[in-house]
Specification:
Elements (H helix, E strand, L loop, with lengths): L17 E5 L6 H11 L3 E7 L11 E5 L4 H8 L4 E4 L9 H12 L3 E3 L10 H6 L3 H13 L3 E6 L4 H6 L7 E2 L4 E5 L6 E3 L2 H11 L22 E4 L3 E3 L1 H12 L7 E5 L1 H13 L4 H11 L24 H16 L2 H4 L2
Parallel strand pairs: 1-2, 1-4, 2-3, 4-5, 5-6, 6-10, 8-12
Antiparallel strand pairs: 7-8, 9-11
Bound molecules: NADP nicotinamide-adenine-dinucleotide phosphate.
InterPro entries: NAD(P)-bd_dom (IPR016040), NAD(P)-bd_dom_sf (IPR036291), NmrA/Isoflavone_reductase-like (IPR051609), PCBER-like (IPR045312)
Organism: Endocarpon pusillum (strain Z07020 / HMAS-L-300199) (Lichen-forming fungus)
GO molecular function: oxidoreductase activity
Length: about 325
Amino acid sequence: MSEYAKNKPAGFKNAIEKVAIVGAGGTIGSHLVSALLKTGKHTVTALSRKDSSNKLPDGVNVAPVDYSDESTIVEALKGQEFFIITLSPTAPRDTHSKLVQAAAKAGVPYIMPNSYAGDIEQVQFGVDTLLGPVAKAHREEIEKLGMQWIAVCCGFWYDYSLAGGEARFGFDFDKHTLTIYDDGQTKNSVSTLAQVGRAVAKVLSFPLFPQDEEDKSLTISSWLNKAVYLKSFVVNQNEIFESVKRVTGTTDADWTVTHENTKQRYEEGMALVKKGNMSGFGKLLYSRAFYPEDPSDFAAKAQNELLDLPEEKLDDATKDGIELLKELQKRPERMAA
Ligand SMILES: NC(=O)c1ccc[n+]([C@@H]2O[C@H](COP(=O)([O-])OP(=O)(O)OC[C@H]3O[C@@H](n4cnc5c(N)ncnc54)[C@H](OP(=O)(O)O)[C@@H]3O)[C@@H](O)[C@H]2O)c1
């Protein structure tokens, strides 16, 4: 049954204004916050661990929380209209569920669950990378508790993945080495961090529901219990390498390039993860995404036009990625996994 604004009680506000977020100072969260604040339509409340050392962006309201005391999370979420969860992969496993349960108690109707990755409908890819079943369980828990979700399918973050070390797009900028998967020709659809921020802010800026049966304009409700799909580029490693050479003013002679078979690399990564060595995770994830017969390329589903997202230039994003290098190198635990 479709919901319409005309059927809501008097005083109903057909928009999302109050947005709460976990991870406001994080890799993707900081971009979501800056894009949301730029719209001028949203107030943003950052739920942040009371002992967090993460710097929160200017302009957000801060709600310190304690994950061992649910009431602090419920209190922070009361009155919030949309809840975005961006959680560090190193956060304890049950953190997402704690947040979702607190949101239900606080009466928050909509949640953007942690994932920000590949196509949630590319089931085998999700199973092979171990991420799919976890993200599915998050979405199911939200529904079971009577709330609705909007997932973000953006593919790899281009700038982050370029800077993120050999295990990701294959580049080690300190050593000037590059590992190319297979022949380097398999393409992925990928998004810059900024493009993800813009897409989420656009979706949350539409009216919540159509006015009535005649109203065919875009509304947030058309994404409820669905994913928003976006991209910045559809690229392969050879194209990324060309861009890196242009941006850094280097040539082939400056780089040591080796080739690795994606399937073998995936198996090696999985063997490490099975032994509890999470340095294998990036290896298995990125090599699997570049499998020639089933890559992480869902450009056909991207809603860039619908969301009026800008065209970006690959070399600009490459520059941003290289600038991100120093930031990421300050997070050795992250570079290692
Ligand atoms: N598409 C891609 O290429 C890609 C790449 C990486 C990650 N991802 C996805 O995006 C998600 C977010 O990644 P991110 O890099 O943005 O995260 P992040 O910056 O590492 O962390 C986000 C927030 O998690 C909170 N946090 C950290 N440790 C925690 C702990 N032990 N317990 C509770 N909260 C903790 C922190 O908030 P406070 O300090 O304010 O409490 C932090 O700001 C990942 O989980 C993953 O699903 C996608």
